[in-house]
Amino acid sequence: MAGKALIFSAPSGSGKSTVVGHILKLHPEIEFSVSATSRQPRGAERDGVEYHFLTPEKFRSLVEQEQFVEWEEVYGGSCYGTLKSEVERIWAKGHVIIFDVDVKGGVNLKKYFGERALSVFIKAPSIEELRRRLVNRNTDSPEAIERRVAKAAEEMLYEDKFDVTLVNDDLATALATAEKLVGDFLAKP
Ligand code: ADP
Ligand code: 5GP
Fold first, then answer.
1. Domain CATH for 104
2. Per the structure, how many domains does the chain have?
3. How many Å lie between the centroid of ligand 2 and the Cα of residue 189?
């Protein structure tokens, strides 16, 4: 039984997790798609919650068995992807899927889901502000921040491949706009 999907993508630090977390709190019928990854868990991450943690061999074998909707090598050789089984699990409950994925993943998911999905590109007001947010977030080394910022410049080029752009400047305004976008999309037949 096919349902709807919401795709939120952005260069790292633009506010994807913040916006997706807000939408999840408001809508019990929207469920987060847990991606699979071949990287190791970090900190308190739990298998099946933040990610399905797979060995690189298992990940590759599932790719060969065409078990992924989309997958990608993102940072430092680690692979990330959305399993078909995850999509089926959420739709079987009659829930709407929400994705928090990088920009290329977002474009690929939109191609796969077509009109069933709303794809949203979240944009920080500037690259300088994006760097400031990553520094303040305090989760990445200075080198990792510079890597993410350099990648962001390239990812900005994908903006026009999304259905809509959400500028995340003032947070309260961005969250209200996200609520409206989601509400309108869910109300559509
Ligand atoms: P992403 O998931 O895209 O990497 P996050 O949601 O983690 O981004 O946001 C990056 C950092 O910026 C976080 O510390 C978050 O609290 C902060 N942040 C998000 N939106 C805003 C905003 N509008 N103004 C200032 N800081 C913000
Ligand atoms: P992290 O290792 O910091 O958790 O995530 C690294 C990157 O992988 C982030 O940009 C995140 O959006 C992206 N990512 C997470 N899940 C997926 C997925 O299923 N597909 C793709 N293409 N990217 C993903």
1. 3.40.50.300
2. 1
3. 30
CA of 156 to the centre of ligand 2 (A): 16
- Judged by DSSP in three states, 99 sits in strand
Burial 124-133 (b: 16+ CB within 10 A, else e): beeeeebbeb
Distance 17 CA to ligand 2 centre (A): 11
Ligand 1 neighbour 171 (Cβ under 6 A): yes
pLDDT digit string (tens) for 91-103? Answer: 999 999 999 999 9
Partners of 47 in the beta sheet? 51
Q: What is the mean pLDDT of each run of 10 residues along the chain (189 residues)?
A: 93 93 97 96 92 97 97 86 96 97 95 97 94 92 91 93 98 98 95
d(CA 111, CA 108): 5
pTM of the model: 0.94
Element (H, E) at 63: helix 56-64
Q: Which domain holds residue 97?
A: 5-187
What are the E-state strand segments in 5-78?
5-9, 30-32, 35-37, 51-53, 68-73
Ligand nearest to the CA of 100: 2
Cβ(102) – ligand 2 distance below 6 Å: yes
